[in-house]
Amino acid sequence: MLAAVLLVGLPIVVVTGLLSYIAYGPQFGQAFPGDVAWFRLPSFDWPTRPSWLYRLSQGLHVGLGLALVPVVLAKLWSVVPKFFAWPPVRSPAQALERLSLVALVGGLLFEIVTGTMNIQYDYAWGFDFYTAHYWGAWVFIAGFVVHVAIKLPTMVRSLRGGSLRRYLAQSAAETEPEPPDSHGLVAVAPSPPTTSRRTLLGAVAGGSALLGITALATTVDALRPLAVLSPRGQSYGDGPNDFQVNRTAFGAGIPPDIGDTWTLRLTGGAAPVTLTRGQLLALPGHTATLPIACVEGWSTTQTWTGVRLRDLAALAGVPVPATALVQSAERAGPFARVTLTRGQVLDPDALLALRVNGADLSLDHGFPARVIVPALPGVHNTKWVAAVDFRVA
Amino acid sequence: MRRALAAWERFYGADPLHLLALVGCFALVAAVVRQVADDPSWWWMLVWFVGAIVAHDLVSYPLYALADRSLVLGRWAWRRRTGATAPRVGVVDHLRLPAMGSLLLLVVFWPSISRAGEPVLLFAAGRTTEDYLDRWLWVTAGLFLLSAVVYAVRLGRAAGTGRP
């Protein structure tokens, strides 16, 4: 029963995680870890439509991942007694199978621990999060695939046994043990139950709901007050600029007076073009309501106003660029620059945003100007943009 | 052929496909290990990987078992001493379930509640988690309150119908 939930849920978490790696643009060397040798994923230009694509995929990765934690714990709780069984090994087949459980269980626990710490800014490991989370995923995949291949018949048999409904109807006092199975997974001499199976499943579902709500509350405005324990769901007030900030201007080393001397430099054409913020505001503008969705699972939808990236490309003299390199005024940091694909530059809603919700961008949201592109991972919507280089090839 | 297969299964304990699948699994893990070995912090990855298994299987699980056993033992002792019989509406789950929910939140949000992530949060995002312990206590209180209300409703219904 729990296995069936995990069989559906965990692949979704894995696939959305790997999709996030592709969304970061490994073809431009901006997905981490960079050098993955044989583990290179099929790379394609990440689409810009639907605009909520990354919001959904990454929200699922983090939200579903959290919601499955109680299911994983309950599943392990039900099988761990086997871990202490004696004799520990009865055949070579069983010995190898137990060894593969190290990949399955270790990989899963490692991904849960690193993931939940990362969404809470706790980097106490001594290694790089992206690198470890990527490789941990592959260890888990190795263990998971072989476990499913070996155990699928067992799960189907147990669900088909027809006793599930009867078991779920029993109260604690009526609960009867399962008949012995050929794998020795069923307890040989279980103690009298202290609760019923349906209460146990209800408890797991309740735990999942509890964690699922905290995750959902970091993406849905109406639920945001419920994100009481998630540091990514804090309230910022209700002004036009009052929404989640992942990296402040202070944290990025941006001086508060950046606007005084700021200009935007566009290159790639015959001659560089330099624009002041006033000149940008005088250009034909465009307003789009777009989500910004972060790798840590939170997202928020706001109404952005600015100049279309494709208009800037035309202004630079490269109307159909192959890529665009956006450079932030932030000097250090792995996300101070980003390469956008042609599709991301040419999307009609892809903006160099100057205003949000009818007000100038605040310094922490990227004033004087920031990128906002549909379905782009949040951290690639570069803030404090200083220059854009439109490249033909 | 069939005899060879039977002899193999007697020796190995499963059919050859089983071995093939497992060899594939170990090959993939070995390939990952080869990649990770180049990382200067591979040692810490190993420590956290093994640590996660040890913390779960050899620390958390015995604690669950201990909590469950002491509950059973305590209830037995209580009933023996007071002569009480099983109540019409069991109270154990109404204490155990909110406690489990509360512990689950404590473990998952430990980096925030313990304020371990706060220095980075403060530097990067300008926020703190100083009241997260209070928040967790409030959520815990809410869970127990909810459980108490459900218990009261069940008690009332049991009294009304004369059966649980």
Automatic annotation (TrEMBL), chain A:
The chain crosses the membrane at residues 55-78, 99-120, 132-150. PANTHER family: BLL0505 PROTEIN, PROTEIN-METHIONINE-SULFOXIDE REDUCTASE. Gene3D superfamilies: Oxidoreductase, molybdopterin-binding domain (3.90.420.10). InterPro entries: Di-haem_cyt_TM, Mopterin_OxRdtase_euk, OxRdtase_Mopterin-bd_dom, OxRdtase_Mopterin-bd_sf. Pfam families: Oxidored_molyb. This is Molybdopterin-dependent oxidoreductase. Residues 259-390 form the Oxidoreductase molybdopterin-binding domain. The keyword Transit peptide does not apply. Keywords: Membrane, Transmembrane, Transmembrane helix. The keyword Cell inner membrane does not apply. It comes from the Bacteria.
Automatic annotation (TrEMBL), chain B:
Keywords: Membrane, Transmembrane, Transmembrane helix. It comes from Actinomycetospora lemnae. This is Lipoprotein. The chain crosses the membrane at residues 12-36, 42-66, 97-116, 136-153. It comes from the Bacteria.
